[in-house]
Amino acid sequence: MNEGNVTVTVYGARERCASCVNAPGSIETYEWLQAAIGRKFGNDNISYRYIDIFEAEEDEFIEKIMEDELFYPLVLVEGEVAGEGTPRLKSVYRHLEKRGLTKQEG
């Protein structure tokens, strides 16, 4: 049973980071996460946000990315870091399950 609404936020940029040449871009990662999470948990009770680090108002996560403390794409589940750079689905799934989401039936 899913409890409440869980927000998945991806911080990224149109440009790929210098060390991410062969990795998917931020928007591709954002779309891939939506599809993968939707297949496992469904889309009820999950909302998604994409924040462009060069266009959004600065916040603590953008500041950490700009200072190279965190890498983008940065994935948050309810404000908690679930993955960065090349995020792993297992880590994102664990964070979602910790928030009460369960695998959908069928």
Describe this structure in words.
There is one protein chain. The chain contains three helices and four strands, in the order E-H-E-H-E-E-H. The chain has one domain (6-98): Glutaredoxin (3-Layer(aba) Sandwich). The chain has helices at residues 26-41, 60-66, 89-98, and strands spanning 6-12, 46-52, 74-77, 80-84. Helix 1 links the parallel strand 1 and strand 2. The chain has a four-stranded mixed β-sheet, sandwiched between helices. The chain starts with 5 loop residues before the first strand and ends in an 8-residue tail after the last helix. It is of the alpha+beta class and 106 residues long. 25% of the residues are buried. The protein is globular and about 40 Å long.
Labels describing this entry:
106 residues, 3 helices, Glutaredoxin, 4-stranded mixed sheet, globular, alpha+beta
Got a strand count?
Answer: 4
**Number of H- or I-type helical stretches:** 3
Q: How is the CATH topology named?
A: Glutaredoxin
Distance between the termini: 14 Å
Q: List SSEs in N-to-C order.
A: EHEHEEH
CATH architectural group = 3-Layer(aba) Sandwich
Query: What is the domain total for the residues?
Result: 1
Q: Tell me the structural class.
A: alpha+beta
Strand content: 15-25%
Which parts are unreliable, with pLDDT below 50 for 5 consecutive residues or more?
none
Biggest sheet: strands, sense, closure? 4 strands, mixed
In the CATH hierarchy, what is the superfamily? Hypothetical protein sa0798
User: Taking Cα atoms only, what radius of gyration do you get, to the nearest Å?
Assistant: 14 Å
Round the mean pLDDT to the nearest integer and report it.
90
Order of the strands making up the biggest sheet = 2-1-3-4
CATH C-level class is Alpha Beta
Shape: globular
Organism: Salimicrobium flavidum
Pfam families: DUF1462
InterPro entries: DUF1462, Thioredoxin-like_sf, YuzD-like_sp
Protein name: Disulfide oxidoreductase YuzD
